[in-house]
Design brief:
alpha+beta
Length: about 80
C-alpha cells in the first residue's frame, strides 16, 4: 500500500502515481484501469479512486466507456492522446 503525504489529497497522489505509470509504459495504451483494484492497492474508498480517474480523464490520459470501464488512452503518431 502507498504511503500518503498528509499535505495533499489522496486522490491527487493516486492520480500522480497512475500518470507516472502511464508515462513510463507500466500501463500501456488500452490497459483497463480497474477501480476495484485501485481501491485495494491504495486502501481508499471508491469515491477517492473516482476523483483520481476523473482528473486523468480530463487530461486525456484515460477514456471511459459506459458498461466497459476506463482504459489508458492510445497515443497516435502525432503524440497526442485520444479522448
Amino acid at each position: 500500500m502507498m504511503e500518503f503525504d498528509p499535505t495533499q489529497p489522496k486522490w491527487v497522489q493516486i492520480a500522480d502515481e497512475i500518470r507516472k505509470r502511464i508515462e513510463t509504459g507500466d500501463l500501456p495504451p488500452r490497459t483497463l484501469i480497474s477501480e476495484v483494484r485501485l481501491e485495494e492497492e491504495f486502501g481508499v474508498a471508491r469515491t477517492t479512486v473516482r476523483k483520481a480517474t476523473a482528473a486523468l480523464r480530463e487530461e486525456g490520459l484515460i477514456t471511459t466507456t459506459p458498461g466497459m470501464g476506463s482504459f489508458v488512452a492510445s497515443i497516435p503518431e502525432d503524440g497526442r492522446r485520444t479522448v
